Task: structure prediction
Amino acid sequence: MANTATQRTHTSPQTALYDYEAIVLGAGVSGIYQIKRLIDLGVHATVLDANGGVGGTWWNNRYPGARFDSESYTYAYLFSKELFAQWQWQEHFAEQPETERYLNHVVDRFDLRASITFGARVVSAVFDESISSWTVIAHDGRTFRARYIVAATGVLSIPFIPEIPGRETFRGESHHTGHWPTTPVEFAGKRVAVIGTASSGVQVIPCIAGEVASLTVYQRTANWCTPLNNSAITAEEQRELQANFESMRETLNTSVAGFLHQSSDRAAYDDTPEERLAFFEQMWNSPGFSKLSSHYTDLLFNDAANQEWCDFIVGKIRSIVHDSETATKLIPKNHKFGERRPPFVTNYFEVYNQPNVTLVDTKRTPILSVTETGITSTDGLREFDIIIWATGFDFGTGALTRMGIVGRDGIALADSWADGPTTFLGVQCHGFPNLFFPGGPHAAAGNNPRYNGDQVDFIHDAIVFARDSGYDTIEVESEAEQRWTNMVDKYAKKGPFSEASYFFGTNIPGKPRKYLLNSGGRPKLFSTIAEVKANHYTAFLLSRSVGE
Ligand code: NAP
Result:
């Protein structure tokens, strides 16, 4: 059974119609896992990636300080116990170079490198209904044909830089955190500006503050930053991780958000004020996302409890930052904890005690323009050698709508999603047969590789089902897509995130305000996948292409 699809590729009279049974777009965390699963299945498949090496997000985001804020071993692949035993993470939250090394290790360990073409940026992917195949064209004209496309192109892969007048005239260096150069950026003695103070900005700021001549941080919105609490993994912890691999994998493969953190069984006002204070202190000292996943059960939905936690953080900020005016600027004013994706930090607030670091509140003194030598705000011009744009991404749909994807009846995906994405399970949409997009819009529900992995597994199983049943075209029905999309929109309103969050596309001018995560969460993904399988993929239209 293992090789039906490949055999068809090689034996069908229509062999010349396509080069690969499947093309995976993107050699990031999901793309690597997808190609591994397809090759194991015996599918003739390849990966196209725009970059010069593997990593996807972890190739592009190589700015100083870029690191996980999910625990390394919870972010890593879990499909092989041997792989887990071979790779010992150095830190609980690995820095980008370690992650890039890890992904290269996986690619070599499983002999996947020969199946990846680097430096191929896809500019067009068009479905040919007559032969049920996709024609994929790279920026340099190389053309590939495939039965299936799996676009593992990521949700945070298209950097956003705001249209500030004069931006192109700046004569110094200008870098976006999400498109960082592979050659080192020299910071020593330079005058540096960082624009943006969310997850990326707050990572890069403390890492470069020590070596630059001056660092000016342009903050539009203060975020509720709390400590990452990273540390090296001790030998004892390594032993425990190895010994507990199976139970850890079980937890990660079944948990609501793909983390190991124990959830709390207490609501805020089950505790006395003294107990709450002690608990807040414990949370402040806990690792990364446990401040959400292990917090009081009502933290995100009880305003009073949330306010108390925020007041606690305010006290911490004021105790760390010496200058009270700067501390005031760093305290969020317009949102609760958890209403936006909270950044986790190391030595972030402390940096503002350095004499070479200045915080500019762009709500008080807005940026007017970029000049040849610096940035002009309403309070004057500041001159820089380097500007770092930590200004975010066209989240969720950015990559998929820019690749020239055209489905059945000549309909472009960008047009089909003009009012926001419509998907089923966040993996497929009607009108685009044999196109899958693991980790795309309507997908995210916690620790990225965990739910992306769920989707990769589903795509694998769907392809197996189609080919075992003698079909070569699989396309979700419009009714199933509508149901999933309605579910996403309905629960988005009940979730913690405010509509000001980039999860609604709000950060991109002109983008429709539609929820881009899976608001039903991972349990909804699990239950719907189980239902689809139990019903023999009735949510999908399956067909045979003409002539086969
Ligand atoms: P982001 O969350 O979208 O933040 C963009 C920042 O740029 C915000 O502070 C935003 O201010 C600011 N900004 C945008 N336009 C501006 C303008 N015209 N003037 C002044 N400021 C402007 O982007 P990000 O920090 O790159 O993070 C994106 C996501 O990547 C994160 O949420 C996370 O999922 C992921 N990430 C993960 C890690 C990790 O795992 N460790 C690290 C980095 C990033 P406003 O808030 O006012 O819009």
